Amino acid sequence: MTEPVLSVRNLQVEFASRRGTLRAIDGVSFDIAKGEVLGVVGESGAGKSVTGLSVIGLIDPPGRISGGEIRLSGLRIDNLPPEELRRVRGKRIGMIFQDPLTSLNPLYRVGDQIIETIRTHLNMSETAARRRAIDLLAEVGIPAPDKRIDGYPHEFSGGMRQRVVIALAICAEPELIVADEPTTALDVSVQAQIISLIKRLGRDHGTAVMLVTHDMGVIAETSDRVAVMYAGRVAEIGPVQDVVKNPLHPYAKGLMGAIPTLAGEDKRLVQIPGSMPRLSAIPRGCSFNPRCASAFDRCRIDRPEPLPRGTQSVACHLYDSVPAESAA
Amino acid sequence: MLAFTLRRAIQAVGVMIAVGIISFSMFRFAGDPVNQMVGMDTSGAERAAIRKSLGLDDPVIVQFGRYVGNAAQFKFGVSYQFRLPVTNLLMERMPATLELAICATIFAMVTGILMGVYSALRRDSWLSHIFQAVSLVGISLPTFLIGILMIYLFSVTLGWLPSFGRGDVVHIGWWTTGLLTLSGLKALIMPSITLGLFQMTLIMRLVRAEMLEVMRTDYIRFARARGLTTRAIHFGHALRNTMVPVITVAGLQFGSVIAFAIITETVFQWPGMGLLFVQAVQNVDIPIMAAYLMMVSLIFVTINLMVDILYTIVDPRLRSTVSRAH
Question: Pairing with B223, which of B14, B52, B63, B321 sits 20 to 30 Å away (CA)?
Fold first, then answer.
């Protein structure tokens, strides 16, 4: 097996606060292979975005990566000095943020922002960079790119701006794109276009994509594999069709049950009772145990570690030494 | 864009007419000018003759019309104390005041922006704390006190800088400048700092607050995610975005710099318009006071207009909304 583009091992991220240290990410591990799209899904505050920001090295104080390691094509990047990390950002990892309306600097032409980024990372003349910027805009589907390159961000619609942001993320041919809720701020009709654009670019360039979202529909449509996060940990990870069809973790089951179907079955959507614990009050044992219908004594004492199960990996005591039948 | 500029220019003319009415009414309400000009023993007939020769018998509207007409040609009558045309007096004094105000503003902008950027980027360094303390002093201590303290330190105790006046000046046409001689430059230092200190602290605090605000925005985070250099992010992206409010404040403050120059000029016996105005107030020399009011308003209004136009150069969003709205 070839080396994964991104390899995260036992990542821990902590935020120092007045009332002690809060652990936002606690032992997250996953890999993304070349050309693969990994969907990261979970409720607000599950640690999806923090994981994405750790990968690109943008965790700001008071937050810090306190343990584990992140490797990009074998190179360890979580402990690089700031200047070397900066060279990785934008060049080897591209980032797409949630809100295209605020991601671009309003005072600069979009072309200047693209050219600036290209010339920061690639040794190119102004004119060559401009040609490349026009090609990029064309590639992300902006009509008349040779004219639009001189437009200001406020002259673009939300969807078009997100295309510009994507062009900026891929302008130095990165190995990995981290997309943090890239469609959340967009109209539903535009969402589908952006999703297929990201998917196409990943395929054409062999770029690995880490797609952070809370939208299971988006994941099902784009991802090869999916990681379900809960309270700073990966509850379950596996190929997307397996996890959607046959979720193992009780939380993943709940999530999948909450997806409305178009089949028109007249069923109530399943709701997971309660809400995710705050970082300052994560329960002992399995952090999901207070909301879990299948919780038993051990869940309130021991923290479950991820266990391989078929193509999936699940962190749940139901699948540990206990026969699967009794868990059902 | 042109329509926008024109509209602002018309508004500016409106403001100037309003100021004209105020400055004209000073003549009507601040006592009888004839009494100021003549002695105790002047006869009633002589008083009437003076009154007639000055046109004070005409209806108010006619007098106002004449006043505005003259003011538009920069004729503001004759000073009661000096018996010289007010325009000549003001023109003679204006270079001193403008030079002082411009030096003070440049001082305030340069040091204010540098200190503001530094204290925003290195929030916890000891130098930032010193800047904060200095800015507190600048805001809370009155101008004249700082001026007097500086005179005491640098002129009386150390003897480095002159305590009053402009030093040697060079005449270029009707303009006189102190920028070309050593003594002129030395004489500028303390008054400029005294006058600019308040503005400097204001700009520093503004730049610091704006910069901290901008550094939190998504586009700065995205710029970092794009791997741009820290230098490009701080000075290319963040600083330019803080400039819009800074231009506004610095521009508007330039007017009050000229107004505050009255105090600084008095402290340093600076031969500018402010000193002339203070003397005019003491002697109820209304033509000078009225003309000073008009001149300062004109400068204010002109600067406001320039600031409005400058915005559209810095911020492209205004450019298009402006052309769309008109």
Answer: B321
